[in-house]
Each structure stands twice: as C-alpha cells, then as structure tokens.
C-alpha cells in the first residue's frame, strides 16, 4: 500500500517536470529563429562635428526608427574605435558623400 502511494505521489512531479522541459524546448526553438535586437535605444548619446577623412575606415548610417528618433552616423576609425558623428554638420555630410562615392566607384 505504501509503495502504491509513493508512486502516485511521484506521478504529478514527473508530469510537471516533463511539461517544464517541453516548455523550455519550445521556447528555445522559437528564440533560435527570432531576430536579435542589439540595442533598444540610441547608440549615439553625444556626437562630434567631424573627423578627418583619412582616419575613417567605414561609416554606418542608421535611419530613425522605433529604437531611436534620430539619424545616427557611426564612423569606425582605422584604429578600431567608433565615433558618433553629427549628421547635420557640414563636415559629416561631406564625409558621407565621399564614402558613398568611394563605394560606387568600386
């Protein structure tokens, strides 16, 4: 009789463990196909007016969106550092124009 009671007591625990495992597997499968969002806010909190063109390796522009209401211009420098540029500054507009022309000639 005691043996039947202990088996009956273990059945709900086993069922709960199995359901939990099933939920974890299902959640992991869904997350594997979901896009990863790296930032949910503006990356550029402060900007500089310009950097000399010869120090820039690449420029990335991020248009306004749900994560940030401002256009962001991030320059990767040849030394590996990143700098946020003011997209309204005349020097930055020239840099963007040069980078776009540089990419279209290749």
TrEMBL record:
Cellular-component GO terms for this entry: extracellular space
Pfam families found in the cross-reference section: IL8
SMART domains: SCY
Keywords on record: Chemotaxis, Cytokine, Disulfide bond, Growth factor, Inflammatory response, Secreted, Signal
InterPro entries recorded: Chemokine_b/g/d, Chemokine_CXC, Chemokine_CXC_CS, Chemokine_IL8-like_dom, CXC_Chemokine_domain, Interleukin_8-like_sf
GO MF, any single term: chemokine activity
UniProt superkingdom: Eukaryota
CDD domains noted in UniProt: Chemokine_CXC (cd00273)
Domain (Chemokine interleukin-8-like): residue spans on this chain: 39-99
Identification of the protein by name: C-X-C motif chemokine
Provenance organism: Castor canadensis (American beaver)
């Amino acid at each position: 009789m005691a043996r039947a009671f202990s088996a009956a007591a273990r059945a709900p625990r086993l069922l709960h463990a199995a359901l939990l495992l099933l939920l974890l597997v299902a959640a992991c499968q869904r997350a594997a196909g979901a896009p990863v969002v790296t930032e949910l806010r503006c990356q550029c909190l402060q900007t500089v007016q310009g950097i000399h063109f010869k120090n820039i390796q690449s420029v990335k522009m991020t248009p306004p969106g749900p994560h940030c209401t401002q256009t962001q211009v991030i320059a990767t420098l040849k030394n590996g550092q990143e700098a946020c540029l003011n997209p309204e500054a005349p020097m930055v507009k020239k840099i963007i124009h040069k980078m776009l022309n540089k990419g279209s000639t290749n």
